[in-house]
Design goal:
Helix 2 packs across helix 3. This protein has a single domain, classed as HIT family, subunit A, CATH 3.30.428. The chain is about 30% helix and about 20% strand. The chain is built from 3 helices and 5 strands; from the N terminus they run H-E-E-E-H-E-E-H. By secondary structure, it is an alpha+beta fold. It is globular, with a radius of gyration of 14 Å. The chain has a 5-stranded antiparallel beta sheet with strand order 1-2-3-5-4.
C-alpha cells in the first residue's frame, strides 16, 4: 500500500532493526519503544486492522509473539510480557510484544503516557541479537 510505513518496512524500503522476516511476517524492534525489548510484528501484506487478518496469519503472529515473549522474559527478568494489537497510529494491522515491568503496566484502566524513556542505541541493540536467535528457531512454524 503506497504511503504505508509498515508496508515499506516489510518490503525493505525503510530500514528497521529486523528480528524476523519470512514470506508472511516481519518483526522488528519498535523505533520509539515503550521500554527495552519492545517488538512489533507486522504482516507483509497490507491489512488495515487485525479483525480482517486471515486466521492462519493471525495464528502465525501469535505463535511468533509467544516465542519472542518467552525469550523477553529470560532477557529482562519480567514475569509477564504483553501481546497486544493497536490500530490508532498506523492503519496496518500490527502487534506489539513488550515486557511488563508491573502487572498493571498495560490494562484497560492505565495507559503509558509520555514521557517514554529515552534509550541509547546500544541499549536497544542488545535485545535484537537475542530475539533474532529465537526467531530463527521458529522459521518453520507449521499451523
Amino acid at each position: 500500500m503506497p504511503g504505508c510505513i509498515f508496508c515499506s518496512i516489510a518490503a525493505g524500503e525503510i530500514s528497521a532493526a529486523i528480528v524476523f522476516r519470512d514470506e508472511q511476517l516481519v518483526a522488528f524492534m519498535d523505533s520509539s519503544p515503550i521500554r527495552r525489548g519492545h517488538v512489533q510484528i507486522v504482516p507483509r501484506a497490507h491489512f488495515e486492522t487485525f479483525d480482517v487478518l486471515p486466521p492462519e496469519l493471525l495464528n502465525r503472529m501469535s505463535l511468533l509473539a509467544q516465542r519472542l515473549a518467552a525469550r523477553l522474559k529470560q532477557m529482562t527478568g519480567v514475569e509477564r510480557v504483553a501481546f497486544l494489537f493497536t490500530g490508532g497510529d498506523v492503519p496496518h494491522a500490527h502487534a506489539h510484544v513488550l515486557p511488563m515491568v508491573e502487572a498493571t503496566d498495560i490494562t484497560s484502566g492505565q495507559y503509558i503516557l509520555p514521557p517514554k524513556p529515552q534509550l541509547s542505541s546500544a541499549h536497544l541493540r542488545q535485545p535484537l541479537d537475542e530475539l533474532r536467535a529465537v526467531a530463527r528457531e521458529i522459521g518453520e512454524i507449521r499451523l
